Amino acid sequence: MASPGSGFWSFASEDGSGDPENPGTARAWCQVAQRFTGGIGNKLCALLYGDAEKPAESGGIQPPRAASRKATCACNQKPCSCPKAGINYAFLHATDLLPACDGERPTLAFLQDVMDILLQYVVKSFDRSTKVIDFHYPNELLQEYNWGLADQPQNLEEILMHCQTTLKYAIKTGHPRYFNQLSTGLDMVGLAADWLTSTANTNMFTYEIAPVFVLLEYVTLKKMREIIGWPGGSGDGIFSPGGAISNMYAMLIARFKMFPEVKEKGMAAVPRLIAFTSEHSHFSLKKGAAALGIGTDSVILIKCDERGKMIPSDLERRILEAKQKGFVPFLVSATAGTTVYGAFDPLLAVADICKKYKVWMHVDAAWGGGLLMSRKHKWKLSGVERANSVTWNPHKMMGVPLQCSALLVREEGLMQSCNQMQASYLFQQDKHYDLSYDTGDKALQCGRHVDVFKLWLMWRAKGTTGFEAHIDKCLELAEYLYNTIKNREGYEMVFDGKPQHTNVCFWYVPPSLRVLDNNEERMSRLSKVAPVIKARMMEYGTTMVSYQPLGDKVNFFRVVISNPAATHQDIDFLIEEIERLGQDL
């Protein structure tokens, strides 16, 4: 595939002239926003740069005012000449919007009001005085609102109310005190890119209908392969609908590489295949085996040490056992950043074993791949360059809006051979451009969402150094949490030593349990602590953090930090909130 070249498309170092914190840049942005969005630009600038009062706290989006039946303008012109003048949504329906005749004015007014709702939500997501969640039980929400679908259309006033209601009960995943999942935060450039992607509303299967997006996918995947360490960024890859699908792609390609006849003849034509992964690996490996007809019994779980890292000697032992039974080891999936402990398997040792027994090496770096952007932390993935394939989810540690997951493959052309079906209505061989840019035939999907633009635009806005600062800050916050609680009364760490990733795993032990011997009764009572505290967190709406059991360990908290908006004060708040909500248990 020919290179699209440098310049606009490439990832170059920026001089900082576009820094949004620069006052001149900020004001210039405001002028542009006002020019293209009418009153919306002024409102956002006022909220972001302090030219207006902060929105009143409500714990959620307020229901529409009585005056909301008419679109409200902010053009400050008398007489008003903006698109919202004279618009009454109570008498308008979707059929009055574009492409309806004379639909331009109501369309602009409606979309501007939708944008107002979105921008209010964005700003509140960063306001620590707002709730992370306005929790209601499922039956309460079902009874409180009529969510049913009807034969007759509702008017646009009701449609705007639905937008407000939906966001009122949405989880503010960008809130600085949301620590519940691996994907947190709300990046403004990524958000803008997501809006643009939806506006373009195209498909990724051919260059003819997604020319810029196809080129950006080519450029971005090449850059990611360079960072992994493959010479010149050689190889292949694709953006897929999440890490589970990326891992399944790796399993599919590894099987095809060893037994290409399986594509036409199916599993009946190949011997019993065995995959190996750690006992702390993601469940998607077994799901992929089930989906591909390999079977979950053919996924062998390798023992881990006390920190959650795969033990190489056990991997080699299990490979030899499988071979002695006449089975064929075809894939080892090492994990770089396990879901619970944040552990990094010893990739160099795993690579040596894979090379020795001629087994495909996959690295599931969905969670830990972002550390490759950090000069301080990338050593934790030493050996990843020896992998045959790598899963990397920028929507996790790098803060790209969901979804954004990449599967990178070292051997170019293998994905195409494995998956292509040469549908003649899409992939005509007599097109007038380079057909190597019609990438859809190497995907399992036909329709494929544009996931690359969010990552590419954020990379242009932040530079590699910006991602590095983001990742270093999150890891520093995790270390701060660990150092704060490791010797604090009422806390017990799940494993000894500083975490390798931002996963901090611990038990909170209420005063009533601190005097008990470490026996079965204590463990039984301790297992109930985290679920109760989590439920109280959600009902108060103050913060969110995950918990789970693992192996013989009863329910413990797992705090993960991937949101650069979080601060030391937010970590302190989390600790104090856990103690406040759990001290009486």
UniProtKB/TrEMBL annotation:
CDD domains: DOPA_deC_like. Its EC number is 4.1.1.15. GO terms for biological process: gamma-aminobutyrate shunt; gamma-aminobutyric acid biosynthetic process. It comes from Delphinapterus leucas (Beluga whale). Catalyzes the production of GABA. This is Glutamate decarboxylase 2. Belongs to the group II decarboxylase family. InterPro entries: PyrdxlP-dep_de-COase, PyrdxlP-dep_Trfase, PyrdxlP-dep_Trfase_major, Pyridoxal-P_BS.
